[in-house]
Specification:
Blueprint (H helix, E strand, L loop, with lengths): L3 E7 L3 E8 L2 E9 L6 H14 L7 E8 L2 H15 L4 E3 L8 E2 L9 H13 L5 E7 L2 E8 L2 E9 L1 H11 L21 H25 L6 E7 L2 H4 L8 E2 L3 H11 L8
Parallel strand pairs: 1-4, 4-5, 6-9, 7-10, 10-11
Antiparallel strand pairs: 1-2, 2-3, 7-8, 8-9
């Protein structure tokens, strides 16, 4: 059996887990990021996913993790050690990347933002500039010029905004944000008004901000959409050149494939 990797992107809303070969992502699964998790609950879930994939723990060559939730990350590492007998590698601590971090305070950049930018540049090396747009708990825009990460923007997230509106208004319902139409129309009921307001509003925000960012970057600029809502939004958003839903996990795979593990003393 060829080499298998277990890759994990631990975000504020969900833990995305992918089984991959060094040259391609394969099966993807999602667990909620919950304060109630224990190392045992995570470990049992991981064992179930490994079995569901038709694998055994010994079939996993390496585990790589990118996390923006330190408490859950610690539990996840414990679960991997206890249930899969694996010591995971974490980004950025265990890896060197050939992308210059141009942030004023480099340590402030979220691991997910930097890894998405790295993956976008490695997957698409030719354009002078790249913008990666990640629709997660927050919506982030990250800019790369040449081999330098410049920084970007942090905006409200699509689903977190929906949840906040429903929680803080007495009469507005919690909507599903289903993509049912390709053109905005005047809503004649509350659900349509909200659904089109959120979806087309975020599409317009993405188009507008990408255009404004492009004005500051050496062109042409290539725009990569990623995250849970990217594929649906690409139907109505003209900003994207391509959508790669799992760009952060692609980054982990690329790090392993290129042998970018940092040497330890």
């Amino acid at each position: 059996m060829s080499e298998y990797l277990l890759l994990a992107d631990i975000g504020n809303t969900c833990i995305k887990i992918v089984f991959a070969r060094p040259d391609a992502l394969e099966a993807a699964y999602s667990l909620p990021t919950r304060a109630q998790h224990t190392a045992d609950s995570l470990g049992l879930s991981l064992l179930q996913l490994v079995a569901l994939r038709g694998l055994r723990p010994k079939d996993i060559s390496a585990c790589l993790v990118c996390s923006v939730v330190p408490d859950v990350s610690a539990l996840f590492h414990e679960a991997l050690a206890k249930y899969l007998n694996k010591t995971p590698l974490s980004f950025p601590g265990d890896f060197d990347i050939d992308l210059v971090n141009g942030y004023d305070q480099p340590q402030e950049v979220g691991a997910d933002r930097l890894l998405a930018a790295f993956a976008a540049r490695k997957l698409f090396p030719d354009p002078p500039s790249i913008i990666s747009v990640d629709f997660g708990t927050a919506t982030t825009f990250d800019c790369v010029s040449g081999d330098t990460y410049l920084g970007g923007l942090i905006c409200p997230g699509l689903f977190s905004s929906r949840n906040a509106l429903a929680a803080n208004t007495a009469k507005l319902p919690r909507i599903s944000l289903e993509m049912t139409e390709d053109h905005v129309r005047i809503g004649r009921n509350t659900v349509t008004s909200m659904n089109h307001g959120f979806l087309f509003g975020f599409a317009a925000m993405t188009e507008g901000l990408c255009q404004r960012l492009k004005e500051q970057l050496p062109g042409p600029t290539f725009v990569v959409g990623t995250g849970g809502a990217a594929r649906d939004l690409s139907r109505i958003c003209r900003a994207f050149d391509i959508v790669r839903p799992d760009l952060i996990l692609e980054g982990l795979r690329l790090l392993w494939a290129r042998g970018g593990v940092r040497a330890t003393a």
